[in-house]
Amino acid sequence: MPKHPSPTRTRITALATLLLVFAAGLGSGMTIDWLGGGERPAAERTEHRERGRRSALEALDLTAEQQQRIDRILAEKERQTELFWDSAGPRLRQIVHTARAEIRDVLTPAQRETYDAILAERRARREAAREADRR
């Protein structure tokens, strides 16, 4: 007679699966947002990040020396992050391109048309945001 898993084990497995799917979706969303530049222009994203950083650090009541040291740390880490994305970005774009091609292969011709229109609209918004950043 086959042994059935306990209800507790089944719930834990279901919860773990749900968390994995959530984490994968979150990671994918962040990646797509990064590739697409998000909906906000780069200057606005930078300003938003800076505001968040300032409010978090203000709560610590830092001395001037601490603030200077933290500013140097953050500037260096920002430089390292940019170098990382410079090298990882092309590979990441290739992964996204391949995923899109594989998704298109699954779709019907009508669905491909809709999918392509959605991607074109996103591309146009990204280009408009980049153009606005240049001004």
What's the total count of β strands? 0
- Class by SSE composition: mainly alpha
Beginning-to-end CA distance, first to last residue: 73 Å
> Number of helix segments?
4
> What proportion of the residues form beta strands (DSSP E)?
under 5%
Name the overall outline: flat
Global Rg: 22 Å
Low-confidence regions = none
**Largest sheet report:** none
Mean pLDDT: 79
Explain what this protein looks like in three dimensions:
This protein is an all-alpha fold and 135 residues long. It has a domain at 41-134. It contains 4 helices and no strands. The longest helix has 43 residues, at 64-106. It is flat and about 60 Å long. The mean pLDDT is 79.
What's the helix and strand layout?
Layout: H1 7-36, H2 42-58, H3 64-106, H4 109-134
Features of the shown structure:
single chain; 135 residues; mainly alpha; 4 helices
Question: What is shown here, in short?
Answer:
With 135 residues, the protein is an all-alpha fold.
